[in-house]
Specification:
The complex is a heterodimer. By secondary structure, chain A is an all-beta fold. Chain A is built from no helices and eleven strands. Chain B is mainly β. In chain B, the strands form two sheets. In chain B, strands 1, 3, 4, 7, 8 and 9 form a six-stranded mixed beta sheet that branches. A three-stranded antiparallel beta sheet of chain B has the order 2-6-5, with no helix packed on it. In chain B, 36% of the residues are buried. The chains are: A mainly beta, B mainly beta.
Chain lengths: 117, 109
Protein backbone atom coordinates (compact mmCIF):
# COMPACT_ATOMS: atom_id res chain seq x y z
CA UNK A 1 0.00 0.00 0.00
CA UNK A 2 1.35 3.39 -1.01
CA UNK A 3 1.69 5.74 1.94
CA UNK A 4 3.15 9.19 2.47
CA UNK A 5 3.56 9.94 6.17
CA UNK A 6 4.42 13.49 7.14
CA UNK A 7 6.02 14.83 10.29
CA UNK A 8 3.89 16.38 13.01
CA UNK A 9 2.56 19.87 13.54
CA UNK A 10 5.05 22.63 14.30
CA UNK A 11 4.79 25.92 16.16
CA UNK A 12 7.63 28.32 15.46
CA UNK A 13 8.58 31.96 15.92
CA UNK A 14 9.29 34.36 13.06
CA UNK A 15 12.89 34.10 11.95
CA UNK A 16 13.34 30.49 13.05
CA UNK A 17 14.28 27.70 10.68
CA UNK A 18 12.25 24.57 10.03
CA UNK A 19 12.46 21.31 8.10
CA UNK A 20 9.41 19.08 7.70
CA UNK A 21 9.45 15.59 6.26
CA UNK A 22 7.45 13.18 4.14
CA UNK A 23 8.31 9.47 4.24
CA UNK A 24 7.17 7.32 1.36
CA UNK A 25 6.49 3.61 1.57
CA UNK A 26 4.86 0.90 -0.51
CA UNK A 27 6.48 1.99 -3.77
CA UNK A 28 9.87 2.74 -5.31
CA UNK A 29 10.56 6.15 -3.79
CA UNK A 30 13.30 7.13 -6.24
CA UNK A 31 11.15 6.54 -9.33
CA UNK A 32 8.34 9.00 -8.66
CA UNK A 33 8.28 12.79 -8.47
CA UNK A 34 7.25 14.24 -5.11
CA UNK A 35 5.51 17.60 -4.86
CA UNK A 36 4.84 20.00 -2.01
CA UNK A 37 1.54 21.88 -1.84
CA UNK A 38 0.61 24.76 0.46
CA UNK A 39 -2.84 25.56 1.79
CA UNK A 40 -3.09 28.71 3.84
CA UNK A 41 -5.94 28.92 6.38
CA UNK A 42 -9.27 29.11 4.57
CA UNK A 43 -7.57 29.35 1.18
CA UNK A 44 -6.95 27.19 -1.87
CA UNK A 45 -4.20 24.81 -2.89
CA UNK A 46 -0.90 26.20 -4.19
CA UNK A 47 1.77 24.24 -5.99
CA UNK A 48 5.18 24.93 -4.40
CA UNK A 49 7.56 22.69 -6.30
CA UNK A 50 8.53 19.18 -7.26
CA UNK A 51 11.55 16.92 -6.90
CA UNK A 52 12.62 13.67 -8.49
CA UNK A 53 14.43 11.77 -5.71
CA UNK A 54 16.22 9.57 -8.24
CA UNK A 55 18.45 12.38 -9.48
CA UNK A 56 17.44 15.31 -7.23
CA UNK A 57 16.04 17.28 -10.17
CA UNK A 58 14.07 20.05 -8.42
CA UNK A 59 11.71 22.69 -9.82
CA UNK A 60 10.08 25.51 -7.92
CA UNK A 61 6.98 27.50 -8.72
CA UNK A 62 7.97 31.16 -9.24
CA UNK A 63 6.20 32.28 -6.05
CA UNK A 64 8.25 29.89 -3.92
CA UNK A 65 11.64 30.08 -5.63
CA UNK A 66 14.17 31.26 -3.06
CA UNK A 67 11.65 31.03 -0.23
CA UNK A 68 11.89 27.29 0.52
CA UNK A 69 14.19 24.38 -0.21
CA UNK A 70 12.99 20.96 -1.33
CA UNK A 71 15.30 18.00 -0.81
CA UNK A 72 15.25 14.25 -0.31
CA UNK A 73 17.24 11.46 1.33
CA UNK A 74 16.98 8.38 -0.90
CA UNK A 75 18.37 6.12 1.81
CA UNK A 76 15.47 7.08 4.09
CA UNK A 77 12.78 7.31 1.37
CA UNK A 78 12.06 10.76 2.74
CA UNK A 79 11.45 14.13 1.15
CA UNK A 80 11.88 17.42 2.96
CA UNK A 81 10.63 20.98 2.81
CA UNK A 82 12.64 23.58 4.67
CA UNK A 83 12.71 27.24 5.54
CA UNK A 84 15.74 29.20 6.74
CA UNK A 85 13.76 32.08 8.21
CA UNK A 86 10.04 31.66 8.78
CA UNK A 87 7.51 34.44 8.45
CA UNK A 88 4.01 34.68 9.88
CA UNK A 89 2.73 34.34 6.32
CA UNK A 90 4.22 30.81 6.18
CA UNK A 91 1.45 29.66 8.52
CA UNK A 92 -0.34 26.98 6.55
CA UNK A 93 -0.99 23.30 6.03
CA UNK A 94 1.67 21.67 3.85
CA UNK A 95 1.04 18.48 1.90
CA UNK A 96 3.46 16.22 0.09
CA UNK A 97 2.04 14.49 -2.98
CA UNK A 98 3.31 11.67 -5.19
CA UNK A 99 3.14 12.11 -8.94
CA UNK A 100 2.42 9.00 -10.99
CA UNK A 101 2.68 9.43 -14.77
CA UNK A 102 2.10 13.11 -14.21
CA UNK A 103 -0.92 12.69 -11.95
CA UNK A 104 -0.85 13.74 -8.27
CA UNK A 105 -2.26 10.51 -6.88
CA UNK A 106 -1.27 9.93 -3.25
CA UNK A 107 -1.21 12.67 -0.63
CA UNK A 108 0.38 12.84 2.79
CA UNK A 109 -1.83 13.65 5.76
CA UNK A 110 -0.50 17.21 5.91
CA UNK A 111 1.76 19.09 8.33
CA UNK A 112 0.36 22.19 9.99
CA UNK A 113 2.98 24.90 10.44
CA UNK A 114 2.10 27.82 12.71
CA UNK A 115 4.43 30.81 12.85
CA UNK A 116 3.64 33.25 15.61
CA UNK A 117 5.53 35.48 18.00
CA UNK B 1 2.18 31.17 -13.78
CA UNK B 2 -1.35 32.21 -12.76
CA UNK B 3 -3.90 30.01 -11.04
CA UNK B 4 -6.51 28.41 -13.27
CA UNK B 5 -9.90 30.15 -13.06
CA UNK B 6 -12.82 28.36 -11.44
CA UNK B 7 -16.18 29.74 -10.31
CA UNK B 8 -16.11 30.51 -6.59
CA UNK B 9 -19.30 28.56 -5.95
CA UNK B 10 -21.76 26.25 -7.63
CA UNK B 11 -24.92 24.87 -6.10
CA UNK B 12 -27.58 22.34 -6.97
CA UNK B 13 -30.39 20.30 -5.50
CA UNK B 14 -30.07 16.60 -4.74
CA UNK B 15 -30.35 14.56 -7.91
CA UNK B 16 -29.41 17.42 -10.20
CA UNK B 17 -26.26 17.71 -12.29
CA UNK B 18 -23.74 20.50 -11.93
CA UNK B 19 -20.65 21.41 -13.93
CA UNK B 20 -17.54 23.18 -12.67
CA UNK B 21 -15.34 24.89 -15.22
CA UNK B 22 -11.58 25.35 -15.05
CA UNK B 23 -10.14 27.87 -17.48
CA UNK B 24 -6.46 28.08 -18.22
CA UNK B 25 -4.32 28.97 -21.20
CA UNK B 26 -2.56 27.31 -24.10
CA UNK B 27 0.44 26.93 -21.77
CA UNK B 28 -1.38 24.60 -19.41
CA UNK B 29 -4.91 23.18 -19.83
CA UNK B 30 -4.96 23.76 -23.57
CA UNK B 31 -1.65 22.07 -24.22
CA UNK B 32 -1.62 18.97 -21.99
CA UNK B 33 -3.90 16.07 -21.15
CA UNK B 34 -2.67 16.09 -17.55
CA UNK B 35 -5.67 17.78 -15.93
CA UNK B 36 -6.79 16.42 -12.57
CA UNK B 37 -9.68 17.21 -10.27
CA UNK B 38 -9.63 16.99 -6.47
CA UNK B 39 -12.39 16.97 -3.87
CA UNK B 40 -11.63 18.36 -0.42
CA UNK B 41 -13.98 18.17 2.52
CA UNK B 42 -13.34 20.59 5.41
CA UNK B 43 -10.30 19.58 7.40
CA UNK B 44 -9.54 16.66 5.12
CA UNK B 45 -6.86 15.74 2.63
CA UNK B 46 -7.69 16.40 -1.05
CA UNK B 47 -8.91 13.31 -2.92
CA UNK B 48 -8.22 12.58 -6.59
CA UNK B 49 -11.50 12.35 -8.49
CA UNK B 50 -10.45 12.66 -12.15
CA UNK B 51 -7.07 12.38 -13.87
CA UNK B 52 -5.86 12.88 -17.43
CA UNK B 53 -8.91 15.00 -18.06
CA UNK B 54 -11.54 12.28 -18.00
CA UNK B 55 -10.22 9.18 -16.25
CA UNK B 56 -11.71 8.04 -12.95
CA UNK B 57 -9.52 6.34 -10.35
CA UNK B 58 -10.71 3.06 -8.96
CA UNK B 59 -13.32 3.62 -6.26
CA UNK B 60 -14.54 7.01 -7.48
CA UNK B 61 -18.24 7.11 -8.29
CA UNK B 62 -19.19 7.19 -11.97
CA UNK B 63 -21.36 10.20 -11.11
CA UNK B 64 -18.14 12.18 -11.54
CA UNK B 65 -16.94 12.84 -15.08
CA UNK B 66 -14.41 15.11 -16.68
CA UNK B 67 -13.90 16.67 -20.08
CA UNK B 68 -11.83 19.30 -21.84
CA UNK B 69 -12.34 21.69 -24.72
CA UNK B 70 -9.60 24.05 -25.73
CA UNK B 71 -8.27 25.88 -22.69
CA UNK B 72 -11.18 24.87 -20.45
CA UNK B 73 -11.60 21.67 -18.48
CA UNK B 74 -14.85 20.71 -16.79
CA UNK B 75 -15.98 18.47 -13.97
CA UNK B 76 -19.58 17.28 -13.98
CA UNK B 77 -21.28 15.75 -10.97
CA UNK B 78 -24.50 14.00 -11.85
CA UNK B 79 -27.13 12.81 -9.39
CA UNK B 80 -25.88 15.31 -6.82
CA UNK B 81 -25.78 13.94 -3.27
CA UNK B 82 -25.32 15.58 0.11
CA UNK B 83 -21.87 13.99 0.46
CA UNK B 84 -20.71 15.83 -2.67
CA UNK B 85 -20.76 19.12 -0.78
CA UNK B 86 -17.09 20.07 -0.67
CA UNK B 87 -14.43 22.22 -2.32
CA UNK B 88 -13.21 21.14 -5.74
CA UNK B 89 -9.89 22.03 -7.36
CA UNK B 90 -8.61 21.45 -10.85
CA UNK B 91 -4.90 21.03 -11.50
CA UNK B 92 -2.99 21.13 -14.77
CA UNK B 93 0.52 20.32 -15.89
CA UNK B 94 2.13 23.48 -17.22
CA UNK B 95 5.36 22.31 -18.75
CA UNK B 96 7.77 21.38 -15.96
CA UNK B 97 5.48 22.46 -13.15
CA UNK B 98 1.82 22.34 -12.22
CA UNK B 99 -0.84 24.88 -11.38
CA UNK B 100 -4.04 24.57 -9.36
CA UNK B 101 -7.36 26.20 -9.96
CA UNK B 102 -8.79 28.81 -7.63
CA UNK B 103 -11.24 26.30 -6.17
CA UNK B 104 -15.02 25.93 -6.24
CA UNK B 105 -17.30 25.43 -3.27
CA UNK B 106 -20.12 23.06 -4.15
CA UNK B 107 -23.26 23.44 -2.07
CA UNK B 108 -26.06 20.90 -2.11
CA UNK B 109 -29.28 22.79 -1.48
Amino acid sequence: EVQLVQSGAEVKKPGESLKISCKGSGYSFTNYWIAWVRQMPGKGLEWMGIMYPGDSDTRYSPSFQGQVTISADKSLNTAYLQWSSLKASDTAMYYCVRLSSGTPDYWGQGTLVTVSS
Amino acid sequence: QSALTQPASVSGSPGQSITISCTGTSSDVGNYKLVSWFQQHPGKVPKLMIYEGSQRPSGVSNRFSGSKSGNTASLTISGLQAEDEADYYCCSYAGGLYVFGTGTKVTVL
